[in-house]
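Human: Here is a favour to ask of a fellow structure person. Comparing notes only helps if you start from a blank page. Give me a protein, with the fold worked out from its sequence. Please set it down just below, with no commentary around it:

Assistant:
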Amino acid sequence: MKTIKGPAIFLAQFAGDKPPFNSLDAICGWAAGLGFKGVQIPSWDARLFDLKKASESKTYCDEIAGVVARHGMVITELSTHLQGQLVAVHPAYDAAFDGFAAPEVRGNPAARQAWAVDQVKRAAVASRHLGLNAHATFSGALAWPYVYPWPQRPAGLVETAFDELAARWRPILDVFEENGVDVAYEIHPGEDLHDGATFEMFLERVGNHPRANMLYDPSHYVLQALDYVANIDIYHARIKAFHVKDAELNPTGRIGVYGGYQSWADRAGRFRSPGDGQVDFGAIFSKLTRYGFEGWAVLEWECALKHPEDGAREGADFIKRHIIRVTEHAFDDFAGAGTDEAANRRMLGL
């Protein structure tokens, strides 16, 4: 067993143009003041990080790590959620996702995809430069528009989509293998990898690639009515990153899992700050600890009601209270009889 590291915080939802959220130094000072010990850095946010420079310069990465270390923290992972999304985009979402890309490739899906692939590969090198073991990202999606289809999907449509998704990711996974870093896909609605079955479909197609792994976030399972504790039993060997994010699903006579096109505050399923939703984090931390999860418990704040700064402050303490310091001996060791093999045989009448 291992003691989970934490608390850490994903900076993506907090970065902004006003202090202390507009530079890595300032936002790390803010996070450290709340009690966080690690930061997960969004690699697309130039206010905090330069991915191109990080992939080309170990010196730059040492400087970035030094900025974080001055506040008594470490970098837990880099994230390419936005770039990973662009590795595979169904044409129906071209306009919606164009804003994730660099200006020079917008409006050109082929150039945008090539840019995204390069970005994620650069993140593998940057992660190695920073001494990181895991990387957080999205898979992108080609089949998602057909998740609940009418008319029915033609035979082979999903298989073709997953064949293509795997073909796009396999070379990227090989670059992560070269750099000794795990790809932790956040299993997330809107991605083709949105539950255990779809992850397995992908894993089979990339030849059970050792770098194809999971970012575990129970909030996305609550909103699908999926058993998020049993999910750890099934996939613990592939869970390489962990987002602490709460959620609730309260269906009514009018609205259920699909949300009725309502705002986040009015949906039956909505994200909440840790401790305000329905996720049993005691069970989750116990399972992950039992299975020897070695990574970080990273707060990802998304709440339809609470102010983000309150969510961050409360989240640091919430994670601290849930981390289990593993025991070094059994609780009943005091009653040990100190017997040997001869005594064991006598006890058995042998």
Q: What stands out?
A: The beta strands are 5-10, 38-42, 74-80, 134-137, 182-186, 212-216, 239-244, 246-249, 269-272, 296-299. The mean pLDDT is 96. Residues 152 and 259 are 22 Å apart (CA to CA).
